[in-house]
Write a structure and sequence with these properties.
Length: 697
Amino acid sequence: MPDSHAFLTNLALVLCVAAVTTFLFQRIRQPVVFGYLVAGMIVGPHVPIPIVVDEGMVKTLSELGVVLLMFGLGLDFSLRKLAQVGPTSGLVALIDSSAMMFFGYLLGRLLGWTTIESVYAGAIVAISSTTIIVKAFSEQEVSGRFTRIVFGILIIEDLIAILLIATLTTISSGGELSAGDLALTAGRLGLFLAGLVGVGLLFVPRLVRAVVRLDRPETTLVVSLGLCFAAAWLAVSFGYSVALGAFIAGSLVAESGEAKVVEHAVAGVRDMFGAIFFVSVGMMIDPRLIAEHWVAVTAFTLVVMAGKLLAVSMGAFVTGYDVRTSVQAGMSLTQIGEFAFIIAAVGLATGATRDFLYPVAVAVSAITTLTTPLFIRASDRVAAFVDRYLPRPLQTFVGLYGSWIEHLRQSPGEPDTRLLVRRQVRWLLLDGGLLALLVIGTAVERAHIARQLIALTGLAESVAAVAVIAGAVAIGIPLVVGIIRVSRALGLLLATRALPRGDERRLDYAAAPRRVLVATLQLAIVALVGLPLVAITEPFLPLGRGPVLLGLVLVWLIVAFWRSTADLHHHTRAGAEIILTALAKQLAPADQPLVNPTALGLVAASGNGLQRVHQLLPGLGDPVAVRVGAGSAAAGRTLGDLQLRAHTGAVVLAITRGDTEVLLPVGTEVLAADDVVALAGTTEAIESARRLLEVGA
């Protein structure tokens, strides 16, 4: 009975204090999570307030909160969603997580932390917060194209976080690992996941559908929670985190197609224990430690904001989104949240990290949570600023790149081409995997290999050590060269699908845009392979070796890309002249002579009218002529004021106004009623621009 009374007392204190703080935070329009954290500080041992609860008891209850939170995230994840978001959001999430893991690890080492603490730091800042994003979008009533890619990225990052937790839990024993141990660890994890998912897919979806058909919410709740905790228990039994098992249970339930029903049934229980989890996080916040490590808090906050903004924006643009959408997505994901707490707790519980890392993670999460709504509100203005001040060659490139990627997605490609693409992807994965194994294996087994070499050859110890490194470098160089060459070949295959060569007997008018697309795709592919490689291998190398090599390769590719954009700008200007001639032919009276007869001959050779110019100039997409409406709000305003490219993604190739013709107009060009504007870009971008010009804002 005394134990029961103590449990009741602790639970009442936690929930009552949390109720007061969350009510106050809602009244001042701040995230509810902050209320839970403050409640934890009030009832915790580090703040001199005479309300203290049993930390061990609350921690036990918080484990239930972790299980239910991960189960809820799993309900939002399914194999169908993975297939839908994988080709685009998956690539962005991989770039973002890899880049942030490296930045976090590098910053931890620069601050003097141990290797394993720095690895945890990288994992903590790698994952954005689904909870915070959903809350911020809901409170600000945010919608639009960029929200789809944001939620897609979050789905993939949740999966990456679960794998990180499972891996870190396994390797945080503190002992020395050999290459064989690492391989065994990865193999065990793979077998566990394959077994749990494989068996679960056979039984769980059928069971859930049968239970839901009973139409008894109580039964649905009990069965769902039973599956959740059973999977969590299995994960713990095999030495993994409860979060892994709960997440898989949620994803298996989601495969039944009844995720909404189950989510509604478990929502109340999940929210209550989730609140206790966040209160337990607040109990571990030590203001003294945060003040002592304020440099780390500030540095990691800046890294999260700047790193995620850059990584997500660049990744989204490379996958075919316009500048505005890419920047908005990047600015929406500049925070860390619940996974940061869970990963930090794993490090603390296993003894892999010291006690300062947890409050540092919480402080960074709190600051970035506060700034997230501000970033979301400012994202539109920042995107317009970035678009306006891009160099002219880049402005031309970003306006056309989206249409190339759209054509690439819509082009089925020849069977032989698809086969070649798959083959090149396999070579990339093989070279990257072998390079990672080479680096990790050499780092872990270097001393053992050197001893074997000494025994066989009688070399001096120092000479043997150098020989091992030299041998690894000699093996690694062909793999690095192979990645660069295969990325070039893959980029060329994809670019040729988007911008076909056409008849070999005629001049290749798509050569200039194809060169830019090849350079862009090669740069993106090398970054996509290189960033995860650096993130995985950096803990095994002397600080900075991997990033320096990757940086040199990327700089070389960026120089090649920049040179090709200058050729694209000249190509686009020449194409705009042909488009103007086509417009003049469509708009001029039959007896009026036309200017630029050379360009007219080219238009006639490809067919009559603007609608067939794309056959002659495939790199300009499918140019569309739009007339500025007489009552349009766009009339009398400059292109800079309209921010046409920033808001729609379409690029203005030319404007014809009576006898006046404007090629590649700048932002100071004033539109007038009845102007005919030639636009290029994706189908969605051109439609948005058409509405803006014909009707106006």
